[in-house]
Each structure stands twice: as structure tokens, then as C-alpha cells.
Specification:
There is one protein chain. This protein is mainly alpha-helical. The protein is 69% helix and 3% strand. It has helices at 2-13, 22-29, 34-46, 52-68, 78-81, 87-107, 125-136, 144-159, 162-189, and strands at residues 19-21, 84-86. Strands 1-2 form a two-stranded antiparallel sheet. Helix 1 (2-13) runs antiparallel to helix 6 and helix 7 packs antiparallel against helix 8 (144-159). It starts with a helix and ends with a helix.
């Protein structure tokens, strides 16, 4: 994570054009870093960008697919890569990622590494796809809990920390439970 932190800090220090593409930011994370890309897209869904959940959920599904077929390539759809962020949004996102990586570097360490090994990632794919589906839904404020779950899972994959992966799954299940309860209430009232 330290090398990635250095690249992020250099990206903030050297301004780009008025717009920064998601492709540039994803390439900065490296091709084989599914955890980093998952975290990156989850943070993007939290930014105040119109239709960000709708659009970036396709990237989350693409990463889940790449993990399912055990492919280490970039894998993000062209429609996601073409998105242009303003310099302000890109800088804010990079600062958020830098803060997350700095804090994670203090807490995350290799534990329960079997949960993050490529051979055992297949069981995470349906859960990641479900979180992407919840982010896809047009629920005001509904991106928060699944995005946090994906951030934790992404950190766990990056740091080979099974505890972070478990925390992400628990967070996501709480979000699914709350969503289910809200749907139940709406159906009961109607």
C-alpha cells in the first residue's frame, strides 16, 4: 500500500488537465489490484457525482467478474473508464483514498490470509455483486453502507487481512438487513 500511497500523493502534487479520467485513476492503481480497484470504485460512488452509483456499479460488477474467472487484467468497462472527473472531485477522491490507505496501513496486517487468497476469492464474488446491485438501485443515500462494505473488502484483499474482509461482509449484511426492513415497511404500509 505504501507504493500506491506514494503514487496517489504524486498525483495530487502534479495537477493534470481540467478533467481527470477514471481510466487514468484506475491505471494508477495497477492492473492486478482487484482490491484497490474495488475500493476506488466504492469511494467514487460516495462522491456527489450524478448517477455515480448507477454508473460505477457496472465497474464493481466487472471486477467481480474478473475475480470470478481469476483474471488479473484491468477489466473495467469502457463506459466507466471514459467518465471525466473535475480536478476538484479527483483531488478530493485521491485525498480520501490517501486517508483510507494511511489509516488502513496502521490497522490492516496479514491475518486469516486464506480469506483473501485468489483460490478462495470465489465466495466473495456473489457478495460483491450484491453490493454492486444495491449501489445500482436509485435509493437516496443507499450507496453508503454497501460502499463502506466494499471499501473494507478491498482493503482486506490489498493487505491480505481476513478480519477486514469479515468486517466488510458484516457491514454489507447489516445494509442488506436495513434495506430488507425498509422494503417490508413500505409493502406493509401500501
Amino acid at each position: 500500500m505504501n507504493e500506491l500511497l506514494l503514487r496517489l500523493k504524486l498525483a495530487v502534487a502534479h495537477p493534470h488537465d481540467d478533467k481527470v479520467s477514471v481510466r487514468f485513476l484506475a491505471d494508477m492503481h495497477g492492473e492486478s489490484a482487484h482490491g484497490a480497484l474495488l475500493l476506488f470504485l466504492a469511494v467514487l460512488t460516495l462522491l456527489p457525482i450524478p448517477f455515480s452509483g448507477f454508473l460505477f456499479s457496472f465497474g464493481i460488477w466487472a471486477i467481480a467478474r474478473m475475480m470470478w474467472i481469476n483474471d488479473s487484467s484491468h477489466g473495467l468497462p469502457e463506459s466507466v473508464c471514459r467518465v471525466q472527473l473535475s480536478k476538484t472531485s479527483a483531488t478530493r477522491m485521491i485525498k480520501i483514498l490517501t486517508w483510507i490507505y494511511t489509516k488502513a496501513d496502521l490497522v490492516c496486517k496479514p491475518r486469516l490470509e486464506a480469506l483473501s487468497s485468489p483460490a478462495h476469492r470465489g465466495w466473495l464474488v456473489p457478495f460483491i455483486a450484491l453490493m454492486g446491485f444495491i449501489i445500482f438501485l436509485p435509493i437516496p443515500g443507499g450507496n453508503g453502507t454497501p460502499a463502506v462494505a466494499l471499501i473494507l473488502i478491498g482493503l482486506g484483499l490489498m493487505a491480505r487481512d481476513g478480519i477486514a474482509i469479515i468486517a466488510g461482509i458484516v457491514t454489507g449484511l447489516v445494509g442488506v438487513g436495513v434495506l430488507g426492513f425498509l422494503v417490508w415497511l413500505i409493502l406493509r404500509v401500501v
